[in-house]
DNA sequence: AAAGCGGGGGT
DNA sequence: ACCCCAGCTTT
């Protein structure tokens, strides 16, 4: 059974410890969920600890500069998340008196928060009953319920399906959400699922059908090597390393093979608010 | 509905 | 080499 498996086998992750919630409350959960968006849990932990030590409340973070926030984000990837988290902290101070809201619609209205993060905060911090659906959950449901090897692209159906499966009790529902995610992260994995260890193997439609290869509905991400994203990452790395100093434009990845791509990267970083140009050169935003 | 957006680790 | 990762915003 899923609950007993979760109690005995769940990873001891930082954000599951009572001391974490006692110290940082919903703000700690919110920051962890931002960092966990498309970044593996094991990579997040050291960054999360450093972040919360520096900015233990939304109010503390709201006082920080954009440059500080982008610099602290370091190499976590998708640095716009740092901007959105900063903006969300400011919005929490302005709209909610510095308290992370509990209401899902209020959470959804914050910058950088979507269906997953909003419900994750409401469930894992406040203990309310909502369907929390991430990539692991979608894969588990695709297999156990639909008998498919891979999930379809995210849709509202994921939420209604998970909602229908949730136990009535708030606490049990929260556990069910977490257990389903954990199952997908550790047993029902994308590449090499370990069905021999699965606590719901007896109830799995995909396993019962002989684990058919139903095709992968996922859209393939474009190659990173040579991409604009790689160029942006290289520019931002230079700015982080130089901070708080500006870098002369001629010294920003001058050896990049494609000069037009380099310029495009710089322009798009400025447009996103991740960089600023002045007489001194290019720098993290004031 | 599809595209754009980091970076690292596993296979 | 390729795939995947506790997604979100914009078009």
From TrEMBL:
InterPro entries: DNA_glycosylase, Endonuclease-III-like_CS2, Endonuclease3_FeS-loop_motif, HhH-GPD_domain, HhH_base_excis_C, HhH_motif, MIG/MutY. Its EC number is 3.2.2.31. Residues 35-186 form the HhH-GPD domain. It catalyses: Hydrolyzes free adenine bases from 7,8-dihydro-8-oxoguanine:adenine mismatched double-stranded DNA, leaving an apurinic site. SUPFAM superfamilies: DNA-glycosylase. Belongs to the Nth/MutY family. This is Adenine DNA glycosylase. It comes from Microbacterium paraoxydans. The lineage of its organism: Bacteria, Bacillati, Actinomycetota, Actinomycetes, Micrococcales.
């Amino acid at each position: 059974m899923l609950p007993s498996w979760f109690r005995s086998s769940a990873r001891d992750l930082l954000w599951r410890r009572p001391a974490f919630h006692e110290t940082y409350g919903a703000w700690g959960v919110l920051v962890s969920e931002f960092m966990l968006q498309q970044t593996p849990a094991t990579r997040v932990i050291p960054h999360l600890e450093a972040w919360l030590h520096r900015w233990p409340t939304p109010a503390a973070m709201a006082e920080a500069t954009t440059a500080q926030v982008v610099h602290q984000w370091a190499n976590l990837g998708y640095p716009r998340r740092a901007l959105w988290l900063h903006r969300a902290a400011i919005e929490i101070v302005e709209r909610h008196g510095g308290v992370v809201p509990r209401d899902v619609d209020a959470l959804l209205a914050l910058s950088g928060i979507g269906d997953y993060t909003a419900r994750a905060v409401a469930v894992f911090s406040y203990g309310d009953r909502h369907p929390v659906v991430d990539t692991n959950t979608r894969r588990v449901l695709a297999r156990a319920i639909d008998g498919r090897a891979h999930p379809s692209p995210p849709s509202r159906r994921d939420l209604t399906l998970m909602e229908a499966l949730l136990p009535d009790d708030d606490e049990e529902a929260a556990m069910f959400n977490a257990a389903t995610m954990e199952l997908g992260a550790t047993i029902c994995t994308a590449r090499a699922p370990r069905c021999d260890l699965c606590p719901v193997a007896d109830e799995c439609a995909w396993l019962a059908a002989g684990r058919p290869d139903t095709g992968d509905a996922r859209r393939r991400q474009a190659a990173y090597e040579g991409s604009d994203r790689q160029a942006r990452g290289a520019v931002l790395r230079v700015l982080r390393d130089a901070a708080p100093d500006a870098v002369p434009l001629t010294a920003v990845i001058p050896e990049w093979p494609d000069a037009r791509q380099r310029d495009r990267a710089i322009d798009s970083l400025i447009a996103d608010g991740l960089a600023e140009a002045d007489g001194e050169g290019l720098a993290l935003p004031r």
